Amino acid sequence: MGLLQLLKSQFLCHLIICYVFLVSGLIINLLQLCTLPVWLVSKQLARRINIRLAYCISSQMVAILEWWSGTECTLYTDPKSYPLYGKENAIVVLNHAFEIDFLCGWTFCERFGVLGSSKVLAKKQLAYVPIIGWMWYFLEIVFCKRKWEEDRRTVNESLEKLRDYPENFWFLLYCEGTRFTPKKHQVSMQVAESKGLSKLKYHLLPRTKGFWVTVQSLRGTAAAVYDSTLNFRNNEMPTLLGLLNGKKYHADLYVRRIPLELIPEDEKECAEWLHKLYQEKDSFQEHYAKTGRFPGPIMSPPRRPWSLINWLFWSCLLLYPLGLLLTQLISSGSVFTIVASVAVCSAAADLTPQIFTGSSLDDWPD
Ligand SMILES: CC/C=C\C/C=C\C/C=C\C/C=C\C/C=C\C/C=C\CCC(=O)SCCNC(=O)CCNC(=O)[C@H](O)C(C)(C)COP(=O)(O)OP(=O)(O)OC[C@H]1O[C@@H](n2cnc3c(N)ncnc32)[C@H](O)[C@@H]1OP(=O)(O)O
Ligand SMILES: CCCCCCCC/C=C\CCCCCCCC(=O)OC[C@@H](O)COP(=O)(O)O
Predict the structure, then answer these.
(1) Residues 153, 158, 164, 170: is their CA dihedral positive or negative?
(2) Ligand 2: distance of its center to the CA of 361 in Å?
(3) Any idea of its EC number (predicted)?
(4) What is the per-residue pLDDT across 154-167, written as a single tens digit (0 to 9) for each?
(5) Pairing of strands 250-259, 224-232
(6) Ligand closest in space to the Cα of 113
(7) pTM for this predicted structure
(8) CB-based burial label for 308 (10 Å; 0-12, 13-18, 19+)
(9) Which phi and psi (to 5°) does residue 298 adopt?
């Protein structure tokens, strides 16, 4: 193990990274709160400010993936569609099997210049997660309770509000509704069987209602659906903790641009269309399992310096006062203060793995 790799695996480094993320995140949440009066004067200006503030938070996580871990992201796509990415609103349909799939999504958003404005249909519980959840409130993220009777109206209303959004955005939809596990897959395939639907090997049965309401609500606003299929080289199952330890992964993303006009308006036909799409996605994963690559040419966008610059800016800003505090702490000579500080750090040490495994996020009660 090289010296740099050894440094990246040190707990002290992780603590410093978390400190910068948490403190900058809370400062940005506070700044977002201060934009509330601006909404009353100019909604579009408030939205543009919030897009930039959100970028300051999400790009820190992207920087961990791109610059700290050096993870590579390869895009397989049609060269004719490539120039449109980032230049239009789109609905992104992505498989949900990896702990860091959202972060790979964010990384592509960053490379195509839509990170600050990107959106997702997220479970309601995530709205209460400090920093990310609070940031999402100001980004007009769409939340669902996974109770169709309620979601039907609220999801539609939230999406309608995005019609006059001032910047291009990608709206991410995990149609599987939950992250893939062998157990969930088994149950899902029983449902498929009972409904007379073809079985899937690499995906859960897609939930069709959210997709239908999204497509209908964003007609005239979004130009296309980006059917996106993600996998990692060497059968790796990457984790946030792995990234933090500086482990380098290699993500492959296959994207097909499907104009929105090609998607049926009728609910039943739209559901059938989505089931067929997932059959195709399954065949792409089969191709990947056999050949180690997706079909089609590679058109990888390079990483940009902005996520690193933003991260260095917040680190410099926040590590200076921390350094001053530590100097004062040590020079105070108070045993009680030093012991209390060590106790706080130990508590943080216990919590960090839980945050990074993401298990605490998935296990929130419904
Ligand atoms: C160029 C580069 C391109 C791309 C780059 C990639 C991406 C970048 C883009 C953007 C990034 C932006 C942000 C990312 C950041 C973070 C994201 C993080 C987290 C979010 C993750 C989540 O929160 S996922 C969970 C929430 N989302 C969803 O659930 C969406 C899918 N769900 C739906 O659509 C649902 O329909 C619903 C939520 C709208 C309503 O749910 P409900 O359960 O009430 O209704 P359903 O119709 O779905 O369910 C009832 C029917 O389902 C049948 N059933 C029962 N059991 C199962 C089962 N196990 N599997 C399948 N189906 C089942 C049941 O029989 C009912 O059937 P009926 O026939 O009676 O309808
Ligand atoms: C600069 C780096 C510092 C990093 C510190 C960041 C710690 C991480 C904090 C917040 C990340 C929040 C990202 C939210 C995305 C979580 C994905 C998720 O939770 O998907 C839920 C989905 O599966 C469905 O779940 P279940 O069906 O309920 O199971």
Answers:
(1) negative
(2) 6
(3) 2.3.1.51
(4) 999 999 999 999 99
(5) antiparallel
(6) 1
(7) 0.93
(8) middle
(9) -95, 130
